[in-house]
Design goal:
The chain is globular, with a radius of gyration of 20 Å. It starts with 7 loop residues before the first helix and ends with a helix. The protein is built from 14 helices and two strands. Strands 1-2 form a two-stranded antiparallel sheet. It has helices spanning about 10-30, 40, 50-85, 95-110, 115-140, 150-170, 175-185, 195-215, 215-220, 225-230, 235-255, 265-275, 280-305, 310-335; strands at about 140, 145. It has one domain (about 15-30, about 50-335): ABC transporter involved in vitamin B12 uptake, BtuC.
Length: about 325
């Protein structure tokens, strides 16, 4: 889809519209739930009524968490698609989320006494995401070139391997831990801690800022390493920075939400169709659109069956799997795979 030259006015207009849509989404999603609230009591900041507790301690932090997680996954997917020059690149499909989840689950189960759960799980998930990305990309190189089909195949194999290790760990822990780990792996955004939401927002904003600083480099890298080098990009430094930033985004969100797939695949494509491929616009727009998408997906997950909650990863998979098949068939018709 042809788009005009990116200007400051267009940048502000598109992101402003998405930001307004996100604000409306947060308000609407917080108002929706299986329990009917009396809004005169629910908006009492003193939390003197059950309605206020449900609203401020359950719904508001949850919709904020969904927005941050969705935005981070979408931004990471947009960056990886440019860096790897593969429209099917996605943190979940490439095994990055699985690697982060594997490291996070190990930290969650071991619970080191000295450092504590709060510090160890995000750090472990970040390290797992970074290591997984290097492994998958390294194994996908053929004669020092990155092959799209090989990358996807290696990602599928790595996902299966990490999934097997996760199931093994889940089978040897006690029943209580196994239930928590399994639900976490399917994607869960339940939280009542605003401190966790704030820390996650900080981590993801740092990762997004690192990617935005490399927006021009990502535009060039999407043309190929040789062409990017001709345009003055320090290819290896740009690649390392992007890997670290994407791993920070994925590791941070996986450590609190578990594995939520397809957000990083679907959202960047839809945004790119409307905004073009300039990453100065694509990255923040993907973040905001991903936030909107996951908030509504989580709203459906917690309300579709009344009082029974569906893991949000199930909802995103139901939306994303058909889209993945469509992209795969389109790339095969183009001869790209």
């Amino acid at each position: 889809m042809a788009v005009g030259q990116l200007t400051r006015a267009r940048l502000l207009r598109v992101n402003g519209a998405l930001l307004a849509a996100l604000a409306l989404t947060l308000v609407a999603a917080a108002a929706i739930g299986p329990v009917h609230l009396d809004w005169r009591r629910a908006l009492d900041p003193s939390l003197a009524s059950p309605d206020a507790v449900i609203f401020f301690r359950t719904r508001v932090p949850r919709v904020l968490m969904a927005a941050i997680v969705g935005g981070a996954l979408a931004a990471a997917g947009a960056a990886l698609q440019a860096l790897l020059r593969n429209p099917l690149a996605d943190p979940h499909l490439l095994g990055v989320s699985s690697g982060a989840a594997l490291a996070g689950v190990c930290a969650l189960v071991l619970r080191p006494v000295l450092l504590g759960h709060t510090l160890v799980v995000p750090a472990a998930a970040f390290a797992g995401a970074l290591a997984s990305m290097w492994i998958v990309v390294g194994l996908s190189r053929v004669d020092r070139r990155l092959e799209s089909y090989t990358l996807l195949l290696v990602g599928v194999i790595y996902n299966a391997f990490a999934g097997a290790l996760l199931m093994f760990i889940n089978s040897v822990v006690d029943f209580y831990q196994a239930h928590n780990v399994l639900f976490w792996l399917m994607g869960s955004l339940g939280t009542t801690d605003y401190a966790v939401v704030g820390a996650l927002a900080l981590y993801t904003f740092i990762g997004l800022a690192m990617l935005l600083a490399r927006a021009r480099d990502l535009d060039c890298l999407s043309l190929g390493d040789d062409r990017a080098a001709e345009l003055g990009v320090r290819v290896e430094r740009a690649r390392v920075t992007t890997f670290i930033a994407a791993s920070l985004l994925v590791g941070a969100v996986v450590s609190v939400s578990g594995m939520i797939g397809f957000v990083g695949l679907v959202i960047p494509h839809l945004v790119r169709l409307r905004t073009g491929s300039d990453h100065r616009l694509l990255l923040p727009a993907s973040y905001l659109a991903g936030a909107i998408f996951l908030v509504w997906a989580d709203t459906a997950a917690r309300t579709a069956l009344g009082g029974t909650e569906i893991p949000v990863g199930v909802v995103t998979a139901l939306c994303g799997a058909p889209f993945f098949v469509y992209l795969l068939r389109r790339e095969r018709r183009r001869g790209g795979m």
